[in-house]
Amino acid sequence: LRQHYLGCLAHASYLIADEKAGVAAVVDPRRDVEEYLAEAEELGCRVDHVFLTHLHADFIAGHLELRERVGARIYLGARAAAEYEFTPLADGETVEFGDVRIEVLETPGHSPESISLLVTDLARGGEPLAVLTGDTLFIGDVGRPDLRASLGWSAEDLGALLYDSVREKLLPLPDETLVYPAHGAGS
Q1: Residue 117: helix, strand or coil by DSSP?
Q2: pLDDT digits (tens, 9 = 90+) for 83-138
Q3: Neighbouring-strand partners of residue 87
Q4: C-alpha neighbours within 13 Å on the C-beta side of residue 120
Q5: Minimal CA–CA distance to 137: which of 115, 112, 104?
Q6: pLDDT at 58 over 60
Q7: pLDDT tens digit string along 62-92?
Q8: Alpha-carbon gap, residue 116 to 99, rounded angstroms
Q9: Pairing of strands 2-6, 11-18
Q10: What does the alpha-carbon distance between residue 129 and residue 174 come to, in Å, rounded to a whole number?
Q11: What are the tens digits of pLDDT across the range 1-57?
Q12: CB 75 within 8 Å of CB 83
């Protein structure tokens, strides 16, 4: 699990790879996908999977580029409405490759389709090592619930969903679970 950080946008994306299986996934990729492809190649992996934790409005994601370049399958939360082909994932669904399991937690609030991804190394046991929280949970903060008014979602409705997502899905995770958000300070 490696973080790729773009300081000018305070944007974090992630490459998750199983070198033994030769397969990798990219989470919340930025538009320039060369860095992910080079790293995957260095690890002896191909990028087969790309996840968006939500439909991003603050940067241009590289999911379509990864699909076009290497045939990666795109995954979004089950509530997403996108105008391109994707695989919807609901709460509890998993994607596995080699010893890596990625489990979806539906965590609406920042957006209705927001998901968080639990990452488990099955060779180390069944407990998640990390959770990639997208814009649901940051270090010391939560995502804004007031950015979807033009789509008919009130800040109050999304705020209530965000509260439930943090309390019911993220707080119950084991204390050892590392938290990796999609943005850092200054975003």
Answers
A1: strand
A2: 999 999 999 999 999 999 999 999 998 788 899 999 999 999 889 999 999 888 87
A3: 75
A4: 16
A5: 115
A6: no
A7: 999 999 999 999 999 999 988 999 999 999 9
A8: 19
A9: antiparallel
A10: 9
A11: 999 988 777 789 999 999 999 999 999 999 899 999 999 999 999 999 999 998 765
A12: no
d(CA 130, CA 177): 5
Amino acid at 176: E
> Residues 105, 136: contact at Cβ < 8 Å?
no
**Beta strand 137-138 with 178-181: parallel, antiparallel or unpaired?**
unpaired
Beta bridge partners of 88: 76
Q: Are 97 and 18 in contact (CB under 8 A)?
A: yes
- Tell me the pTM: 0.90
Sheet with 2-6: list strands edge to edge.
2-6, 11-18, 23-27, 46-51, 73-77, 87-89
Query: Environment class of residue 62 by beta-carbon count within 10 Å: exposed (0-12), middle (13-18) or buried (19+)?
Result: buried
CA distance 155 to 81: 20
d(C-alpha 100, C-alpha 16), whole Å: 8
